Target: A disintegrin and metalloproteinase with thrombospondin motifs 16
Amino acid sequence: MMDFHPRKRIPFSMASKYDMPKPPEEDIYILPDEYTYLSRSKRAVMFKSQRNEKLNVETLVVVDRKMVQNHGNENITTYVLTILNMVSALFKDGTIGGNINIAIVGLVLLEDDQLVGCDRVLGSSAMPDVCGVCKGNNSTCKMFKGQYNKQHYTNQYHSVVTIPAGARSIRVYEMNSSSSYLSVRNSYHKYYLNGYWTVDWPGRHTFSGTVFNYKRPYSQPESLTATGPTNETLVVEILLQGRNPGVSWEYALPKSDGDKKMVPKHNYTWAIVRSECSVSCGGGQMTTKAACYRDLRMQVNISFCNPKSQPVTGLVSCNTQACPPSWSVGNWGECSHSCGIGEQIRQVLCTQKVYYNKMETVTDTKCTQPVPLRRQTCNPHSCPPAWSAGPWSECSRKCGKGLKKRTVVCKSTNPIPRAQILPDSSCLAEPKPKPQESCMVKRCQKNRKLQWFVSIWTGCSVTCGKGIQKRLLNCAEKDVAGKYKQLAPKRCHHVQKPAVQLERECTLAACPRLVTHTVTSSARAGWYSSPWSQCTVTCGGGVQARSVQCIAHGKPSSGCLLHQKPVMSQACNTNFCPEPEKKDEAGKYSGCFLCVKEPAENILGIGLDDSVMM
Model:
């Protein structure tokens, strides 16, 4: 469907007249100071047109195959006539010189997609040359080409090339992809594309009398092309972001001015357009904007007028007189009761707007309207009974987990001097609050102390010759009574283990030689163990050891099975030691209560705050 938006061009021969906007009826047009000598009637004549003249336009309409498919062969003629009647009606107001009657002298339906050449012949492939001449040979103009490769500071605009007015076949493109942007402005520093540190969307941009096609593909160089001709001098710039990728440019200019047609010179003048005032009293604002008019008749783009003489625009004060006094009411406050009839109030003042939303309070007598209500009743419905919980009692324990209690009863909630206590069955609609719950004022302090304890050395693993001695590293906790209780080793994982040796060699007297004749020749090899040695401690966990040897024919042998070898050591006296009643020689080791009844030089105790003592 054809688009007739007033800011877009339409495919008809009179489209240029369609672009001429009609000033809004509510706008007020004020001429600049150079026209103040004209009388009001003369000013009005300058904006009038001859309404009695009629203009008949004969039109040849060409409809392509796509439009025929959308509307059908039978309805396409009616559709075209309807659209042209709508276009013709737009010019009946006489703002462009008179009535226009559009008559269709021919309707061509294209069965196949056919091109229309620059010679306006259907099916023609005629193309204009770079000079804009249909079927030309590029001989009437001169091409200008160049490259811009200079490096500058980033985040700044830098001029690439100045393109004179009348240029055609304009092409500007980056030589490599970059994060920079191509920009276009005129000689008066008015930007049309990517100006003022803002980036425009890629696409078709109309300015300076032609259409520029701006392309910015992803991860590819930017390009800017236009058929021309331009009606003003343009300056192509690059908004540099990083390193300059290099910019190539080219355009064509006519070789001589002799063939140029004389274009009538027009007079372009600024005018001021004012909007309506934002308020009717109390000080408002109206917006003023500058408009450019050609020959005081037609509004055109502001680029045609001299920017140096552009009038100052912006917001202007209007209707500054004070407004009549009126009542100002605030929001209703909260109801005094949620049920059983309450009351709510609001603020009511007589105010007057004097200037720019400044409100002044005046006496109530100046407001002639009836006084709005200041009080009203609210929530008249009866109140349902509800649970009433008293304050919590103190916690039953000063530390640790205790219990606190409170009184919970069912009461009526109507606003009477004294609430009535009701049976609990009246409040069954709501869950009853807990009358008691657990509490804890603070945690009770725990006098606990975890530490590692090292036992004394065990007896030598052999009864003669060389053997080994061992000792254990145990985790224990000191209870309130000061006694130590052995715990699993993982309980002391946060306590650093002492760097002590838990195994060492020991040497006893040489073993006696075995008498061979005491064992018969028929004896087989077997394990022989000595009696258990005395336990290393009397309490707190010790070790017993014995000697185990493989004997065959009265001599040491290796013919015994290892998995049948008896154990050489075992735990003994694992009961805890009682707390010493008085300090003895072992009591001088602070923090060490797992002691054995052995000479002092064999005792070793290690605690959290103790050092290793040997």
Observations:
- The chain has a mean pLDDT of 76.
- Helices lie at 15-18, 40-46, 65-71, 76-90.
